[in-house]
Amino acid sequence: xxxxxxxxxxxxxxxxxxxxxxxxxxxxxxxxxxxxxxxxxxxxxxxxxxxxxxxxxxxxxxxxxxxxxxxxxxxxxxxxxxxxxxxxxxxxxxxxxxxxxxxxxxxxxxxxxxxxxxxxxxxxxxxxxxxxxxxxxxxxxxxxxxxxxxxxxxxxxxxxxxxxxxxxxxxxxxxxxxxxxxxxxxxxxxxxxxxxxxxxxxxxxxxxxxxxxxxxxxxxxxxxxxxxxxxxxxxxxxxxxxxxxxxxxxxxxxxxxxxxxxxxxxxxxxxxxxxxxxxxxxxxxxxxxxxxxxxxxxxxxxxxxxxxxxxxxxxxxxxxxxxxxxxxxxxxxxxxxxxxxxxxxxxxxxxxxxxxxxxxxxxxxxxxxxxxxxxxxxxxxxxxxxxxxxxxxxxxxxxxxxxxxxxxxxxxxxxxxxxxxxxxxxxxxxxxxxxxxxxxxxxxxxxxxxxxxxxxxxxxxxxxxxxxxxxxxxxxxxxxxxxxxxxxx
Length: 489
Fold this sequence. Notes:
The chain is α/β, with parallel strands linked by helices and 489 residues long.
């Protein structure tokens, strides 16, 4: 039984006031940071209705998950002390540019439940994705893309350290009590996970395997060196994941991928035409005609890679996992807004019964073997039955709570101001990371870039320069050039 802090009656937690306080904090932080909220129609402004929804949901979460707490007990006090800094760690980051409106309440839930049970913060994965590229070099702005994840990790570390100080104060002021670090909110640090999908780029965009694998390995090497040099604590909590070659996908997984594309094809929302047009344009930029045609396939990989809550069977280890996250905070540049919309659509519309119907109707497309077709249908039926049992068990909960037990319950995709043009694709305005270029930067302070030929190209050049400027601002130009000189020797 937790032994915690004795709270005087006058500081008893008022859950109603606390719900209002959290809602006001989130609204004020969004305004202060000028964060963009996104819905399916584009940018969005936080309204009075949204503020009330945050307040109502906050009160509901408190009542459902925390209403059994003693208002004068240590857990209630921990909740009121830890929730604000946990939410600030995300919302107040200087690198966060936008968040989907519908995921904002998931972020609030993450902060509240993480404060209620700090072990859940440990089981939060901070995830950054990298696409495949056949460019033979990396730009000097490449490490800028790591900064949002590192910044979030460091802010969570600061929350942890504040709890350690709190415990030490209590032990000094109340030596007769026995205080448990975990009970008072001291948590182990979460993981930063870098995801790479070179094999998807090879299969869908028709890229050269040798060049893509070489570029992926170069990214691995630079991330490791940069983080080990400047952020060794965060590096110790960093993991790397890579997708499996499509040849390793089993028949069942291939059918599931086709089903996910089919869900998107059947979606008739007003934003679909524009969404698929933009995805097709991206696919054409990186994979020509094949990339354009298979843009939907590339898009539906994202919810699988990031382990979104899909009420569907698991796929054949598209990315191998060790351990289970309770929550995912995924960080991506502006292009990820499109893929985040696909993730949202699939979480809403990809359902067990619909999947089973699709399998029954399309199993023959994947094999001429009647026995194999029957096996595929039996596998799908078994999984749908298992999901239905979970649905019945958690029938009072919203859809995400009855999805597969091995998936994180909370996913919060956020958009960073870095990587408007992905750092793994070179632009004409990038400075390539070479010893000669670093020497020239040291001597001249800059390397001339071509003049843009259009407003779109001017924006592109500006975003590339801004990425590097943020990296320099965070590290310092001399320290950064010292690192690059050592790295390119």
